[in-house]
């Protein structure tokens, strides 16, 4: 325990030139620096009591506390929400923020955040306007719906529809569609929270029209169909066509509501990628209401859209939840520009759709250029490699996109160790680890991100010498 007496006093540590430099460089107060020093001293004290040090001199302890304090100060100045480079090949990576915005959408967000805006102001009349009007025409033009409203995500959209139209009543749903949408959030749980009674029908793999017909009674308010966009079922399966469900609902004066989840507005079937239903086609089948995410296949910010018949949307706009679940001006700005790009057929400007549609040969060409500009390494082995990309974000689970990237191996470190070091870069690089190799898929990389990876690999190689 003699080491405890060697811990220097706080005032001496605070006057050390290295701490003075940190205070000036990071523009922090002496009180903040003092608190960081006290935390470091306590940490060292605990380590001494746990016998983690031996034969440490006063100078050794002094330097150790200073190093811990500097690391703590610099760590506190790093934003918790920070950009990363997605080298996983998963385009809509939920943990990494899903869709990247188009440059035009980012500019529109910056302008809307930098100035006062027409969020709820009508320039023509000089009177109060409605935020519901900002993007409604874009959505109705793209979907063929009569009206639309935007809320903060698709789970909120489901909750709002059920609360507004089926609270204290029953909604019929096929058992095979009671999905879990991620983070342990289940459609059945959302229905319960909304006050709607869930009426399960059919079996996991098969549901017929007569199952719906037999379930309808005086307490039924809605037939709900949930598109299973986050998993894929094949084999001995069957479900009921939405047009038949719409006709059935309308014969019994019920609402037919469909939760589409992914929200595809641009037809990808022509490229042979998917047969995911397009929102416009769903609306044309007679659906009363449909909801979908904005930050999935639409490639916009986090939000949810409810589109459909005007009489129902008008009810939603007047509901108290419309204020609770509304989105802010920056979300509207990003959504407006994303919808405008889609409406004007400029989807190649939307990163999500651009990356989905990108030809594997184009990705391979980028890898070859990358390798040509890469120096020879002594410690790392970097090779081109064929890969499979995923769309991600709970969408198109059956789709694998042919892709290309690099495989990185090292004789003195494991792939997990390499992966961890790449995550400590100034812009963290997130990769896949397969067969004791680091795999970096170029489908999800911008050119400037490829430059950052080249620089990171060079620095990593130099540290391993």
From TrEMBL:
Residues modified as N6-(pyridoxal phosphate)lysine: 296
Reaction(s) catalysed by this chain's protein: L-seryl-tRNA(Sec) + selenophosphate + H(+) = L-selenocysteinyl-tRNA(Sec) + phosphate
Pathway: Aminoacyl-tRNA biosynthesis; selenocysteinyl-tRNA(Sec) biosynthesis; selenocysteinyl-tRNA(Sec) from L-seryl-tRNA(Sec) (bacterial route): step 1/1
Record's keyword terms, sorted: Cytoplasm, Protein biosynthesis, Pyridoxal phosphate, Selenium, Transferase
EC number: 2.9.1.1
Cofactor(s) in the UniProt record: pyridoxal 5'-phosphate
EC top class, as a word: transferase
Compartments where located: Cytoplasm
GO molecular function: L-seryl-tRNA(Sec) selenium transferase activity
UniProt family annotation: Belongs to the SelA family.
NCBIfam families in the cross-refs: selA
Protein function: Converts seryl-tRNA(Sec) to selenocysteinyl-tRNA(Sec) required for selenoprotein biosynthesis.
Protein name per UniProt: L-seryl-tRNA(Sec) selenium transferase
Organism, as annotated: Alkalibacillus filiformis
Gene label: selA
């Amino acid at each position: 325990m003699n080491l405890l007496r060697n811990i220097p006093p706080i005032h001496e540590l605070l006057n050390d030139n290295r701490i003075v430099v940190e205070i000036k460089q990071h523009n922090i107060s002496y009180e903040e620096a003092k608190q960081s020093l006290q935390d470091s001293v306590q940490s060292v004290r605990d380590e001494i009591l746990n016998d983690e040090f031996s034969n440490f001199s006063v100078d050794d302890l002094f330097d150790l506390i200073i190093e811990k304090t500097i690391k703590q100060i610099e760590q506190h100045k790093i934003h918790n929400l920070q950009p990363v480079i997605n080298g996983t090949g998963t385009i809509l990576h939920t943990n990494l923020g899903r869709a990247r915005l188009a440059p035009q959408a980012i500019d529109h967000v910056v302008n809307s955040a930098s100035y006062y805006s027409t969020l709820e102001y009508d320039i023509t009349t000089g009177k109060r306007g409605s935020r519901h009007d900002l993007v409604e025409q874009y959505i109705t033009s793209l979907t063929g719906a009569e009206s639309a409203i935007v809320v903060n995500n698709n789970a909120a959209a489901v909750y709002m529809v059920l609360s507004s139209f089926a609270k204290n009543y029953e909604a019929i749903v096929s058992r095979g569609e009671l999905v879990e949408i991620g983070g342990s959030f289940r459609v059945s749980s959302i229905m319960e929270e909304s006050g709607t009674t869930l009426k399960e029908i059919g079996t996991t793999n098969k549901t017929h029209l007569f199952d719906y017909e037999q379930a309808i009674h005086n307490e039924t308010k809605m037939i709900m169909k949930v598109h299973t966009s986050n998993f894929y079922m094949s084999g001995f399966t069957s479900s009921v066509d939405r047009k038949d469900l719409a006709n059935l609902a309308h014969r019994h004066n019920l609402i037919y509501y469909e939760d589409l989840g992914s929200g595809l507005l641009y037809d990808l079937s022509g490229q042979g990628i998917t047969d995911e239903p397009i929102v416009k086609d769903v609306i044309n089948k007679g659906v009363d209401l449909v909801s979908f995410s904005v930050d999935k296949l639409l490639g916009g910010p986090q939000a949810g859209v409810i589109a459909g018949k005007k009489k129902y949307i008008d009810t939603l706009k007047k509901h108290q939840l419309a204020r609770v679940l509304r989105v802010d001006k920056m979300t509207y700005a990003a959504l407006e520009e994303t919808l405008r790009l889609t409406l004007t057929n400029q989807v190649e400007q939307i990163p999500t759709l651009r990356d989905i549609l990108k030809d594997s040969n184009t990705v391979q060409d980028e890898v070859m250029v990358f390798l040509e500009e890469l120096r020879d390494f002594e410690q790392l082995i970097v090779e081109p490699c064929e890969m499979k990309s995923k769309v991600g974000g709970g969408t198109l689970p059956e789709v694998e996109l042919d892709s290309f990237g690099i495989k990185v191996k090292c004789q003195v470190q494991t792939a997990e160790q390499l992966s961890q070091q790449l995550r400590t870069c100034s812009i963290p690089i997130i990769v896949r680890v397969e067969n004791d190799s680091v795999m970096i898929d170029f489908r999800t990389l911008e050119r400037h991100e490829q430059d950052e990876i080249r620089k990171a690999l060079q620095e990593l190689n130099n540290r391993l010498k």
